[in-house]
Amino acid sequence: MEFSAKQIATYIQGCVVGDENAKVSTFAKIEEGMPGAISFLANPKYIPYIYETQSSIVLVNKDFEPEKEIKATLIKVDNAYESMAKLLTLYESSKPRKTGIDAKAVIAPTAKIGENVYIAPYVVIGEGAEVGAGSQIYANSVIGDHAKVGANCVIYPNVTVYEGCKVGNNVILHAGCVIGADGFGHAPAADGYEKIPQIGIVIIEDNVEVGANTCIDRATMGATIIHKGVKLDNLIQIGHNVEIGCHTVMASQCGVAGSTKVGEWSMFGGQVGVAGHAKLGDKLYVGAQAGIAGNAKGGQTIIGSPAIDARVFARSSAVFKKLPEMYTTLNALQKEIENLKGQLNEAHKTEQ
Predict the structure, then answer these.
(1) What is the pTM of this model?
(2) Of the listed 174, 227, 240, 247, which one is catalytic?
(3) Which residues fall within 8 angstroms of residue 2, CB to CB, at 6 or more apart?
């Protein structure tokens, strides 16, 4: 399908600068632009590419002012990144959705399957399980006994939703993620460790996205809860009885230990580690590889291990780089002080 600059600008409430009849039918990064493609410019580092891109249309922020001629038609918007996301969402939703249940799927007689679903080959749906209308479940995925999957979900290949777990509406579970494996509970015993049964569940609320090979453990008792709008990247570990607040996002390889409560609208960089039983406030911004050993108030930016205020960390890092020089200077000062002490002692003896 082709769309003109005028049509696109109307949809995203932008202003056309150039040929409003310019047409596009695909997307491209600005540095890899081609005729018939639409690109966007949000990061100032990519400004040089806008003067040489071959893309027919480029979305830019309203405050962008070119320093020289640009071949492409521009559409000025309040936020180029958000506008491109909106267009990509529209494009994705326009793709035809698969429907139907493959003959090679295994579905228990007591399972409840909604209308207009797609269930691929080798999917297994257990006793008493439920799959909501419009959901898509791809090959080799398992929905365990009495588990529930809401409406309009997308469950990619090799996903496992363990028994009794609940997945809300409009949830995306990427390939290989595991929802509801046992929490890591073992009690020391005379001969090693005795496994503590994990009898709780996982609850994933609406509009959550879980990345590939991410694991969310079931609760020991009660529920591990991922609240609405949470976005988890690939390779994340969420421990038993953890609760993650609405609209929090976590980048790859984060780990949250058991019974920790994470606030709403927080952002975690890659490889952040959080100790168990911690309480983290709302709108907490955590830098990559930070280690959080206890409670943390919301509304701050922290980094490092143990994590501290980002401004303090930056000042500390500047000092850390100078430690070898400071150590040399300190040794020299110590020697000078010792020499001065010796001279003072000699002078004192002479006076006596």
Answers:
(1) 0.85
(2) 240
(3) 23, 24, 25
